[in-house]
């Protein structure tokens, strides 16, 4: 493969993976707001004290859908990077997990969440991205 095409493919893989992951998270948040209308993002208060009590009072199921939204977008991102990147190694997908982990930490610093949610959320990004990249790598290598 031509070196300039390979570089272009690397750039496209990470740009596309970032785009897919971010919009995946937002789409899954929107979907969870449809399942649990009280947890819809349009209902979120803007004051930090009100936001903390709002999130704490949501209930377990809506709180778990928040985690699933974050992890689902990360998995979509890892699969996109792994699929497009010009390598058979799993580090492109795992790198996206680390990238979204940084975003998750920033999110946890801006939006007050219960401690168990922050810890669980942060612990899921890289392992799930690694599993997704590994699964796709295994599938591609079998074909």
Rg, nearest Å: 17 Å
Which blocks of ≥5 consecutive residues have pLDDT under 50? none
Tally the helices.
5
Question: Any idea how many domains?
Answer: 1
Topology pattern, helix = H, strand = E? HHHHH
End-to-end CA span? 20 Å
- Mean pLDDT across residues: 90
- Share of helix among residues? over 70%
Overall 3D geometry?
elongated
User: Beta-strand level of the residues, as a percent range?
Assistant: under 5%
Say how many strands there are.
0
Instruction: Let me know the largest β-sheet.
Output: none
| Helix/strand/pairing category | mainly alpha
Helices and strands, with pairings:
Layout lengths: L2 H33 L12 H9 L3 H25 L6 H20 L4 H28 L1
Helix pairs in contact: 1-3, 3-4, 3-5, 4-5
What does this structure look like?
This protein is mainly alpha-helical and 143 residues long. The chain has one domain (3-142). It contains 5 helices and no strands. The longest helix is centred in the N-terminal third of the chain and has 33 residues, at 3-35. It is elongated and about 55 Å long.
